[in-house]
Amino acid sequence: MAVKRVKALAVLFLFISLQIVVFAITLHYYLTKTFLALRVIDQAPGYTNSSVVQPNRFLGHINSKYPDVRYTSPVAENSNLAFDNVTQTQGKVSLTLDKVTQSTGKVPSSTDCCIKADKKKLFLDVEFPPFVNYGQPDGPGEGGNATTWPANSLTKEDIVLKDKDYTTHFFDEWTSRKIAVHRSLPDDRRPECRIKYSNLPAASVIVVFHNEAWTTLLRSIHSVLDRTPIYLLQEIVLLDDFSDMEHLQEPLEAYIQHLDKVKLFRATKRLGLIRARNTAFDHSKGRIVVFLDSHIECFPGWLEPLIAPIHNDSTAVTFPSIELINGRTFGTGMNTKLERTVGGLMVHSLSFNWLYERKHNISQTLLYYPSPTMPGGLYAVSREWFSKLGKYDPEMDFWGGENIEMSFKTWMCGGSLLLSVCSHVGHIFRNINPNIGGIRLTYKNSIRVAEVWMDQYKHFFYEKLGYNIPDYGDVTSRVLLRKSLNCSDFGWYLQHVFPELKKSMDVFGHYYGEIRSVSENVCLTRQTNTIGIDSCRLGAVTQQWQYGSDKRITSGEFILGVRSEIKQEVEYWHIGIFHDRVFDKTVFVYWIYENQRLVNKKTGLCLQVNTRSRSVELKNCSNSSEDQQWKLTTRKQNQDAMKSRGVEIDWSV
């Protein structure tokens, strides 16, 4: 009998011990999450007891007690978020709890192209890089104001760090660290943009990044969370494209653990933006997907007008009014002047530009404007339509050309591309992409776009390349996709969507090719920031010029012009090349070609070769001077010359 009692007590003791162990592990887990939430605040310099950061100290308790709810932070003072005011009377905090729509999904294995970060992983000793969580109302960058530093306020160490950060990211991350990741932005929306929307579906927001700066990435994430109605945000899918910077490893995983709608996936090899976005799309769940860059800030009321047209028409693709965030001062705001500028195209490079010509022809009352192209960094699309269009071309490398492909096939396959006037998203524009490393980007992506979508008009692009076309891979599957969708031809796109481009691409009456001097065996040659002459080389890109009915001489995105300069009441004329998109009233770009002379329309002077200085100059016109005579190559002559080299050119395809 005694033996049975001992056995029973032993079993009871073992059971109680196991319960204690389970309780200890559970308590350790939730205390760690609470500790982590506190560290997100405590490691962020610049906050005070008066700032709205204290409620975040309850995150661990909230997440442990209510695993299916999230805390709605009241930081979007100008948005239409629904939340209760935070009160801190005698330590009592009023919180708004709302349901989170989350999909568990299958976690990709390590053999896949990416793995999902474990949000239950415990982090006990993670140091976050410096950042400011919440700022004072008049703090650096608040209200979108520019942040500048008087020269005498910076130490030598500060200057060194600023320069180092700029070299790394090509924006001033040192200044960004002084600006709160929850900073406020102005709400200057027009009255007609403040309408209420109903029955909109939740959207997945996709952000792909590679070695992004810490504070700009956090500010991107929080601007989405802070200014998006909870019921409209399905999730934020972060995809780390094989970053190797330390702050994007454990610190990032630890930081997002208390952000319930944020999911982090990591690529196991470098994918590039295009393939990474395809991968992130495959791991998203929303009926509508919004692609954003990793250095953006969403303005109040940004999402609803972006997804409303897609809710009504699943084949619509929308992009916001993109506001410039200054890369040095981080100043930004709603620029209403840019609201009516839609996307265009530079056909010589198949790259995006703004179609300023159409700006003045748009109604002031419309909230959406048809746009021939889009920038591509920020846009929304339905899951159904993006999938039907074949997503991004998976054979494209890294980045470039994917936005043009998306623009072409959206229109040509029965959809529409719309600029949303009422949606505003700020973006840090950089002249150089620091994340391609030593990768040599070619025209491969653009050539794939041209081969699949541009029909015979692809030759306008190939001319610029001098028909030196690199290997662009197999496009058979993309051509079959276009046929299966019964898409229109590129001529339809030019006629119905982009007539301005059709006008500039008119074959007849145009000269295209070299401009050769009659007196010397030299050709007009585009040089770095200037114009000169050089020995003629068939197909040389820098010697390919177009002269058409608009009376302008262009080479790619550059234009031949004359600049006026007045010195001591004497006007001087300087010939050079200028960017085609720069509208400068002191530059005169129209030329009359007659009797083999190129006469500048404004000055009445003739273009003359100077063989001694290997340059060109403007002189009074002379009928007898061969130095002022030029032979312009017609497009047919240029094509015949290319065919003599064995290049296949067929404009009737």
TrEMBL record:
It is a single-pass type II membrane protein. Its cofactor is Mn(2+). GO terms for biological process: protein O-linked glycosylation. The keyword Nucleus does not apply. Keywords: Disulfide bond, Glycosyltransferase, Golgi apparatus, Lectin, Manganese, Membrane, Signal-anchor, Transferase, Transmembrane, Transmembrane helix. GO terms for molecular function: carbohydrate binding; polypeptide N-acetylgalactosaminyltransferase activity. It comes from the Eukaryota. Pathway: Protein modification; protein glycosylation. Its EC number is 2.4.1.-. One of its GO terms (cellular component) is Golgi membrane. Residues 509-633 form the Ricin B lectin domain. Pfam families: Glycos_transf_2, Ricin_B_lectin. It is found in: Golgi apparatus membrane. PANTHER family: N-ACETYLGALACTOSAMINYLTRANSFERASE, RICIN B LECTIN DOMAIN-CONTAINING PROTEIN. Belongs to the glycosyltransferase 2 family. GalNAc-T subfamily. This is Polypeptide N-acetylgalactosaminyltransferase. It comes from Biomphalaria glabrata.
